[in-house]
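Q: Got a minute? One more chain.
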Amino acid sequence: MIGLHLVIGYIISVAPGSSFYWGVSILVMGTLDIALNNNSQDRAAKWAAYWVGLEVMLRMTNGNVVWEAGKYGAILFLSIGLLSENIGRSWPKRYFTYFFLLLPSLLVVDYPNFGLAREEISFNLSGPLLLTISAVYFYARKVKGKELVAIFHSVSLPLISLLLYLFIVTPSLDDIEFGTESNFQASGGFGPNQVSTAIGLAIFLIIIGLFYKSYVIRNLSIDLVFLVFFAIRGFATFSRGGMIGPLIAGVILVGYSAISSKRSTILVSVLSFFLLVGTVGAFGWNFVNDKTQGRLKDRYEGRNYITGKAKDITTGRKEIMLAELNLFYQNPILGIGPGMGTLLVTNKMGNLAHSHSEYTRLLAEHGILGVAALIVMIVSPIFYIFKLPREQRPLPMAILVFVLFILAHSSMRLAVPGFFYGLCLIKPNVSAKANGIRKNH
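A: Always. Here it is, folded:
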């Protein structure tokens, strides 16, 4: 499967239009497989995971029928799974409440034409809808360690294709002129924020596998090799959010595990893990930093590489967030409506600006109902996780932190946060000692 996806990555690099047929074939095969087998062995979760990993590749090669196909495809797979399986399970009403809280604001939208209304509503509500369906699908679902590894593996396969594609279509780092802004050339000509988020997802999953010795791609050696290459490509985008997220979530995973574990050997495991991952990360950082004449370091420090002076480390996002908060103060009841922030918020250049923070976007576009939706979205999984046995909490908590960080820097542009939100609500069906994942599967 690794070899096949490397071949696919190469084919798409020379014939980008072929990605459309890849996407269509996955939708057809996934739909039939889930429905004909009544979602046995959590087929819906694996197909949806694969589709989530595929989303950025399809977008950057124009392989989607519609822009939000990544979210709609994951919704399709999970919905078919829910409807076809014969399991009597209660559905958590709180997540339906979360989504329905966002609908009244449709009453106040004021778009200049129907086409723009359709695009903006789809862009801003498809993410919350996926989060809802994913939460309902995974809530208290018993997932064995080997099944969770299979889900992570499904995500990683199309990301392997993306990795090779980037190495082929982008110029050598020596030939790219780097400043201290996100770099489109190093991101395959596509949005660096989305590319780095996808790469950061791969890094996060590999980190999880390394920590639990249940390798997500293949084995220790292969996973480490891919971790190096993913780190290099991620740092090269110069988009920080996608790379900082897995670091924070990884620290939560390992630190919480050390606190929660009763094993006397946990300290040795933690130190060896940090040494291993830290060495790989340092290599990737130094490689890219040297190739960019130290500008990677300037980028992460928020400094102008010419003057050496600090600049706005949020690269204009703080300005957008403040504008959205101001819209919330002016429209506190129903907000301004989904997607209207794009029309009313401008950046310093006077251009329309998409929100990067799901938190301030919900306030601006949904008012007090957005506040309620935020509370449900953040508080519910925290309460759920803390009801789990103590030693089973680290992985769901790390996934939740990873999701919440993406929502802070990339909103719900991608299907990643909506889908992975559900995974922090699973009920691990394994021994507490293993914490959900072990090598023996």
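A: Residues 94-142+170-434 form one domain.
Q: Perfect, thanks.
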